[in-house]
Design goal:
The protein is an alpha/beta fold. The protein has helices at 3-21, 77-84, 119-124, 130-148, 150-159, 168-175, 179-184, 187-207, 225-229, 240-263, 275-283, 333-345; strands at residues 31-35, 107-109, 161-165, 212-216, 268-272. Helix 2 links the parallel strand 1 (31-35) and strand 2 (107-109).
Length: 352
């Protein structure tokens, strides 16, 4: 093993040990999550959609080696963040019948793979829209009140950390794939359309008692293996036009954060931005112990995700820790850990 790679592995080991050791008394009593496949822990298992990952080899590095519906070989960023907050080591899916309200007292995810800000995005794969996720949250509030009492539930919900991760599907699975939104908006107008939804959603959460809220920014969408695979003209490098859109959207989302922090008394709203660390990993993979950034671990690594990542595919890699991406759209557990660690040191540090 070369010196540079050894340093990369040492860095990852140090990050994991630090994250695992942060189990002091929790500053937040729960982590509550809305979003897409980046933070779905299995809600889609319970609805009729092809956007599922509750089969091998997904979850092969999760506790017990079991597929849960997480689009990764192991844990996702919100799992690591929950653990770092001194709570449970993973955030359970609200629709998973194996959990009860007692399991959701310290955290829950309403996220649905394939969802976005735009209702039209969730319609593409018949998944749970953001506003349906909000209805599930209202149902959760009632159940939590009945379980721990209204006073304690109200305190928990006002002090909990609310996290969102949305937007990638709005562009990659909707705007750039289907004609309807492109016929209505140019890309800048569509960004403003989505930003309006993000603003209204945040204000709705606030009206329901949420005060600590993290809005998730977009990753470098053009560097997803699927986009690189199809970028024939660009020699399979990152698609810069998609990355430019991600940066522009993130800047607009930052504006919402600044605006609402001034407008809403008592809110603590932050922007959790995975873009910089993801680009750093893609540009300098060896610093983190990675060997492959352009293709994923699952199957051929070029275009497969979901059911295309079947357990019997002979091409799936043996060591996911060498890969930045697990499938053509989603990071490996190791990448998720690095992202979570960076967010914990930056925007989430005031909460955890």
């Amino acid at each position: 093993m070369g010196t540079e790679m050894f340093k990369g592995w040492l860095l990852i080991l140090t990050q994991f040990l630090v994250l695992s050791s942060i189990v002091v008394e929790a500053k937040v009593p729960a982590v509550i999550v809305f979003g897409d496949s980046s933070v779905d822990a299995g809600n889609n298992n319970q609805i009729p959609t092809v956007a599922r990952s509750n089969f091998e080899p997904y979850g092969r590095d999760f506790d017990g080696g079991r597929p849960t519906g997480r689009f990764s070989n192991g844990r996702i960023p919100t799992d690591f963040i929950s653990q770092a907050a001194g709570l449970q080591p993973f955030v359970p899916a609200y629709l998973d019948p194996s959990y009860r309200i007692s399991d959701f007292a310290q955290g829950v995810t309403f996220a649905s793979a394939g969802s976005g800000y735009d209702n039209a995005t969730s319609d593409v794969l018949s998944v749970i829209s953001l506003w349906k996720q909000l209805e599930y949250y209202k149902d959760y509030r009632k159940k939590l009140g009945a379980y721990v009492g209204e006073e304690k539930a109200s305190k928990t919900l006002s002090e909990a950390l609310y996290m969102t991760s949305l937007g990638t599907n709005d562009f990659m699975e909707n705007y750039y794939t289907l004609p309807d939104r492109r016929s209505q908006y140019n890309v800048d107008q569509y960004q403003h359309f989505l930003i309006g939804i993000a603003r209204n959603f945040t204000k709705t959460l606030y009206s329901l008692g949420a005060r600590k809220i993290s809005l998730g920014a977009l990753p470098p969408m053009g560097c997803l293996p699927l986009e690189r695979t199809t970028n024939f003209a660009g020699d399979h490098e990152c698609v810069q036009s998609y990355n430019i859109v991600a940066l522009a959207f993130n800047d607009k989302l930052k504006g919402v954060v600044e605006e609402l922090n001034k407008e809403l008394p008592g809110i603590r709203l932050v922007l959790s931005n995975p873009y910089p660390i993801m680009m750093q990993i893609v540009r300098n993979p060896s610093l983190y112990g990675f060997e492959e950034t352009a293709i994923a671990c699952c199957a051929t690594g070029m275009f497969e995700m979901g059911y295309a990542c079947g357990r019997y595919n002979p091409f799936t890699c043996t060591d996911a820790n060498k890969y930045v991406f697990w499938d053509s759209f989603h990071p490996t557990e190791k990448t998720n850990l690095i992202i979570a660690q960076r967010l914990l040191k930056t925007t989430l540090s005031e909460f955890i």
